[in-house]
Design a protein that fits this description.
Elements: H1 3-18, E1 29-36, H2 38-41, H3 45-54, E2 60-67, H4 73-78, H5 82-87, E3 98-101, H6 121-137, E4 141-145, H7 156-171, E5 175-176, H8 178-188, H9 204-219, E6 229-232, E7 235-236, E8 239-240, E9 247-251, H10 254-272
Parallel strand pairs: 1-2, 1-3, 3-4, 4-5
Antiparallel strand pairs: 6-9, 7-8
Length: 274
């Protein structure tokens, strides 16, 4: 085989290798960037979302994040790091389909004189509006990650839900109703723990629920059938860690995983029907 024919042969092989297998369609990909704090990096939520999407028939979600423990959205605005983070992630094309915004804990609500929880709905609304404007200037769609009530104060959810839904409506931005799904699980399966010991942060089951809600919200598809075990980038108290070796992020029983998937889909569907 001469050099010219050999080159043509190799080109043909590369084209065939890249083509979808008969009976299979190429999958769409959504690039999703998460902005927030430890409620995102605990159990590597972006990695869970990505891992769940890999095993389902819908779009594949490729994720990245910019997080700091305890950070408010207003601090992400003021520290000046977010614009460069959004435009300089080397693993993707620097274009995002969605940028998910997560406010600090219950900051979206008014300060609670009973619980002592500090809230600043005006700060929350201003920060979300400013960040959403930046996100849209980059050609992406802002999405809101509704947080949950802490274990000791479940009544917080009413104000949290109203705050996220209100600003979501103002911005015409999708709201991932994680807090509402959390409350539904706590009511229907109080034996299924979603918190770590501090009663605030998510354990692996809590993050798995959040990932199912996020997947359903961003894709419009059901997370039912997602794997009960998800592997991904390991994480520690500062966020995801650089590693060539994937870690087991969550391992649930088949029954618990199916229940969380079903609740996530029910809550997202109910929210969209409002």
């Amino acid at each position: 085989m001469n050099v010219e024919m050999r080159g043509l042969h190799l080109l043909l092989l590369s084209v065939l290798a890249a083509a979808p297998v008969a009976g299979q369609e190429a999958r769409d990909t959504l690039d999703v960037f998460f902005v927030g704090n430890s409620y995102i990096y605990f159990n590597n939520l972006p990695g869970l979302v990505e891992g769940i999407s890999e095993k389902l028939d819908g779009p594949h979600l490729k994720t990245a994040s910019h997080t700091h423990g305890g950070h408010r959205l207003s601090e992400h605005l003021s520290d000046g790091h977010l614009p460069s983070a959004l435009q300089s992630d080397g693993s993707m094309s620097q274009t995002w389909d969605f940028v998910v915004l997560q406010e600090q804990s219950a900051l979206a609500t008014v300060t609670d004189t009973v619980t002592g929880e500090l809230g600043s709905p005006v700060e929350f609304q201003r920060a979300v509006h400013d960040l959403a404007s930046q996100v849209r200037n980059l050609g992406a769609t802002p999405a809101l990650y509704m947080t949950w009530a802490k274990r000791r104060w479940p009544a917080q959810l009413t104000d949290i839900s109203a705050a996220y839904r209100g600003v979501g409506a103002e911005l015409d931005a999708p709201v991932a109703p994680v807090g509402e799904a959390w409350a539904a699980v706590s009511t229907r399966r109080p034996d299924l723990e979603l918190f770590v010991a501090d009663g605030s942060h998510p354990n692996p089951a809590g993050s798995y629920l959040a990932a199912c809600v996020m997947y359903a919200t961003l894709t419009g598809r059901s997370p039912v059938g997602a794997p009960r075990e998800v592997w991904g980038q390991p994480w520690n108290g500062a966020g995801p860690m650089e590693s060539d070796t994937p870690a087991l992020l969550v391992s649930l029983t088949a029954a618990d995983a199916a229940f969380l998937q079903e609740v996530a889909w029910e809550v997202v569907n109910h929210a969209e029907a409002r």
